[in-house]
Amino acid sequence: MSIHDANTTSVVPLPLDPSLPMEDPSEPSSHTLPSQTLPDWLHARIQTPDSITQERQITVSLDLATISPLIQNAQLNPEQLAVVTAPAEPTLVLAGAGSGKTHTLIHRVAHLVTQGLPPDQILLITFTRKAAEEMIHRTQLLLQQHSLKIQGGTFHAMGLIWLKHYGGALGLPPKFSIMDEDDAQGLVHLLMSKLSFSRRKGFPKKQHILALFSRAVNTLRSIADTVSSDFPWLETHTPQLVVLFRAYTETKWRQHRVDYDDLLFLVYKLLCLHEPTRRRLGTHYQAILVDEYQDTTKLQSEIIRLLGSHHHNVMVVGDDAQSIYGFRGAHTKNMLEFQDAFPDVRLYKLEHNYRSTAPILTLANTVLHDAKALYPKRLFTTKHGGQPPELIACYSEQAQSDLLTERILQCRDEGIPFHRMAVLFRSSAHSNNLELTLARHKLAFVKYGGLQLTETAHFKDVLAYLRAADNPLDSNAWHRLLLLLDRVGPKLAERLIATMQEAPHPLDVLDHVHGKAESTIRLLNNVIRTTQDDTISLADRLTFVIKHYEPILKRDYPEDAKVRLEDLKQLCYLARQSLTLEAFLEDLTLNPSTTPGTKHAHPEHHLVLSTIHSAKGLEWDVVFVIWVLDGQFPPVRSWHDEDALEEERRLLYVAITRPRNQLFLTYPSEHYHNASQQNLDSLCRFLAPIPDDILPGFAMDQV
After folding, report:
1. Phi and psi for 692 in degrees, rounded to 5?
2. CA-based nearest residue to 53, from 340, 316, 348, 280
3. Is 135 within 8 Å of 124 (Cβ atoms)?
4. Burial of 190 by CB count in 10 Å (0-12 exposed, 13-18 middle, 19+ buried)?
């Protein structure tokens, strides 16, 4: 029986070790919140045992050296074939940009299946649901088995599955709700007020506090250590931040809620503290493959280490030269440290680039020449010819925009459609002047990195209805909902929520409200009860919610209420794809890109503008990288931080490896930087030493 069958029996919780070291808050007891029975491990500082992967407990018996006809006909180069047929042992694959990594991974999965490994014993971890679905679909087509069941998804999606099946071992209730960023900020704000921390002079804002909490969780460090190393300007508030994190953790637990990081942090604690669950998962997944490993956090890498501790058949694939998410907590040294996590790691390299021309790859390799703490790697291609990249110094920001517009139109006249061209930049603000210039020339464009529907206020309002119905103890949802109502203020809302938290049937509390807001509160309560009714289709329940919300929408957003209403009606269509309200909420929280209005395929007459971070993994015929001016790229704030500078170097490398045929790098030769109050007049430090035969430089009047 698959561990993901609906009939899977729950793991019986075993007692957890109450003697684990705890992180004690250094703050007076007057700041503690009301006590309630909490699990002993909740505030435990847990570490993966160093010896956990030193000895293999089981061996995966597969004859992977035998090449099937499927693999023989797969058109794999020698490097790719070596990866596909690698033994069932710890394996690190350095996959350079454009080297056919996805093609290789798909054939590795297919090879495992054809050599006798049951598909449901393969775990494929990717960084987007779309990537996982694409890989599994292509594997099914390759094997001509459309019902093939491979367990694949993002770390967080898999964490949710594991917590639902095995969270009982930690005392986690079978039904819990997932908080989005807005929910988490609301809870932190509420706790700051209750603990009187918001009155402290200079106390950080809620979004900065959550960034600190997330960094601590993903790096497996204490709040105090994280403040000291990553947020030193907050050190005067360290005792209060420790107390606030403790209160935040306890409140989530009491309200049966988890935030995004908990989906992994709780799994990590589960695997560390509950050996039967670790053994069951570790023996079930006989092969573990992780894509984009360079972007994993310390927390994620430790989960992989724990899951692979029984058989060591773990293959991680990535490019340390494209590790650009340190600001999200990605641990850039995970690629290097993988060889310490498992004994006898095999190293493979994919260096044959199928995307770019030789001159572009020469520039990319040169940019990395002085990079620190990277595995040596050199991209090459068998393509012949190609135009060398061009570096163009412009008189000003406006001159840069004018030049780009002229070049873009020239490329179009040469037969290159707009959608096969992209302008990339370090910061979203770098395209502001260009956007105005393009608009004056009536050139249509799309920009990646804007506000998504899931981040809009009207979407979050409707989501609050659904969350309150799914989990009546969700105080953030109720706080948002009640304050939408006329004649309900913050004090009444907080009083009602506090009463509901203590009631055996929270919704009953709202049936007994009296006063001016009685009718509106009871009507809202009826809407929530109807939304809980599983006998009504989910789409109809959502329609009912939107009908109740529509007058509020028109009251709060009179100028564009119709547009916002159309956004919400599209949710009814999405609801038809989910069987339950709980599944629908999980999908919206874990996969916001599936919601309408987020990321559309751009039409052929639209040019692409994108931050480099959003462009990772994509490619175009022609790419313009703008603002390669030292102080803008890399930014001034990174000049005195070696790790930050190295990440900026890798970010430039990512930009340079996006084009197939042509690459242009531009910058205004002089620009005043307001924040640092200095004049910037130097080329990006990573490009300045490169000789003209690799990167020819031109002044604007020369082109």
Report:
1. -65, -25
2. 340
3. yes
4. buried
